[in-house]
Every structure is written in C-alpha cells, then in structure tokens.
Amino acid sequence: MKNEWLFAKTYWSLFRKKQLQQQFLSNYIKGELSHSFDQFSPSLQFKINYYASWGVVAISEVFATIFNKPLSEKERLQATEMSLLFALADELIDEDDLNLKSISELTTKNTSHSIRYIEAQRLLVKFQDETSIWPTLQEAIKAQIASQAQKKTSDIDQIRSLTFEKGSWTMLLYRQLIEEKLSAQETQTVKLLGYCLQLADDLLDAFDDTAENISTTANLIDLQKVVSHYRTQVNLAKNSFFTTYGRSKNTVKAFRTFQILFAISEMAVDQFTKNGIISFHQTDFSSLNRSLFIVDMEKRTTVLRSLAYCGKQ
To answer: What pLDDT does 132 receive?
Structure first.
C-alpha cells in the first residue's frame, strides 16, 4: 500500500503539472499561433494539445525533477515548441511525404505551402540558431522520416533499430533543452529511456498500428516475445538510470513517472492476454471491438488503475 500511495502522489503531481502546462499552451496558442491554430485540422489540433502537454509533463518536468529544479520559462517554452514541431512533422511526414530535402528547404527558402509548412518553417529556423540542439534535432527528424519504412518491412530487427533511433534521439533532444551539463554516460541512459518509452508506445498503439498495416516492435512477433524484450529493456533502463543519477529522493521521485508510463503498457498487455491475443500479426481484427484493446492515458481512471501495476515493477 505504501508504494501505491507514493505512486498516487506522483500521479496527482503530474496532473497538477499538466494543468499548468495546458494553461501555458493555451496562452501560446492565443499568442504565437493565433493566426494558425484554427486553420489546422482537428487531428493536428489534437496532436498539438497531446504532444505539447504530455511531452513537457512526462519528459521535461521529469528531467527538471532529477536536477531538483522547476522548469525555467525558457525551458518550458522550448519544450512546448519542440512538441509542437514534432506534431507538425508527424502530420507532414504522414500526409505530405515530407523528406530530408524538403526539411532542408524549410530552413533556407520562403515557401507558399500550407499553414502547417509555414509554422514548421518558423520553428525549424528558430531552433537552427540553438547550436547545442540543432544537430540532435536533425537526427530526430531524420529518424522520424526513416521510420516510414515501417510501412514496408516486417523484419523485427530492422523495426527495433528504427524504433531505437526514433525514441532515443527524441528523448535526448528533450534532455538537451534542460540547461544542465550532459555527460556521455547520461546520454546513453537518456537514449535507452527513449527507446523504452517508444516500445511502451508501440504496445499501447498495437491495435491501431496493426489495423493500418504499420509494422512495429509490438505486432511482428508473438506477444510473449514482445513483452520479454520490452521488460528486459525497461530493467536495463532502470539500472542505467540509477547508476547515472544516483539514488536520491529526487531521482526516485523522477523515475516513478516513467514507472507509471511503463505500468500503463503492462495494463495493455494484460488486456491483450485477457482477450486472447497471442500475436497481433496473426489476429483478424475485423470482428473485434477496438475498445477492448485500447488503454486511454487521458482518463484519470486508467492511471489510477495502473498504480497497482507500478508496485510490481
């Protein structure tokens, strides 16, 4: 019960931080995006609100906690804008076939493209001036574009490699937005954490990705092997985390946030098992109810249910 209480406190802390971030984001939308946001599609508006709330709260705020500090105004703004850029890039890559050449053109040419391109260009040019961030941002975007190969290949080793690149560079980028010195050892830890969060995300999205014929780490092999790989990586990341940061009140508190996210994916695994899923790649979903396989992280009840799973980690 003590562990569940500690995780409950962490959850309510996350909820309060999310409220603060949503207010910050709302003010940003009314300001910097006042001429753009209403022109975005409903799906892009949702992505922006989701990415720029949870991206800041579940990653940037956690890194700040490790260093026993609140997010500075600059750190919060940059994390918000980075999340916005990823939402735009995700939409552009999926719908407009954005590639490395067009990314380069966005930072060097005026465009007459859609409002999505214009906003992406504004943010890319802005981050280009941040010399410590720009190289990693380029790698993160390159990894996001490369991940489109997931629609064409079913090789699990290749998929895991693509997934590692996507998750690790993104996580490292968020860490670099925190104005604290970054060591080589911490870099490796952060990248491993990013991979684990991407693996967790693949589990949560397994139903939709399978329905859309997108190959991921969660739907190409038997579920038992998927879960074994996932848990092995989470244990490696946990050990690396405390080796790098030490075991203090702040670091233990910070890692609880990741544990909640990992626990939600464990809930998904239990739901899959309960509903008879042995492997996603061999399952016919045509007659199955999507709600049986979706774990909604936006629902407080979902996170509260996950507390029982946290103590098992």
So the answer is: 84
The residues, ordered by sequence, that sit 6+ positions from 62 with a Cβ below 8 Å of its Cβ are: 254, 257, 258
Residue ranges, the chain, pLDDT below 70? 1-2, 94-113, 286, 297-298, 303, 311-313
The CATH code of the domain that includes 126 is 1.10.600.10
Spatial separation of the C-alpha atoms in residues 234 and 255, rounded to whole Å: 12
Given this model, what pLDDT does residue 152 score? Answer: 87
Distance CA 304, CA 296 (A): 12
Mean pLDDT of the chain: 88
Range of the domain at 268: 1-309
Q: Shortest CA distance to 218 belongs to which of 143, 160, 267?
A: 160
Helix (H, G, I), strand (E, B) or coil at 214: coil
Whole-number Å distance between alpha carbons of 160 and 222 = 15
What's the domain count of the chain?
1
Q: What is the dihedral of CA 145, 149, 155, 159, to 10 degrees?
A: 20
Burial of 282 (0-12, 13-18, 19+ CB in 10 A): exposed
Q: What is the pLDDT of residue 269?
A: 94
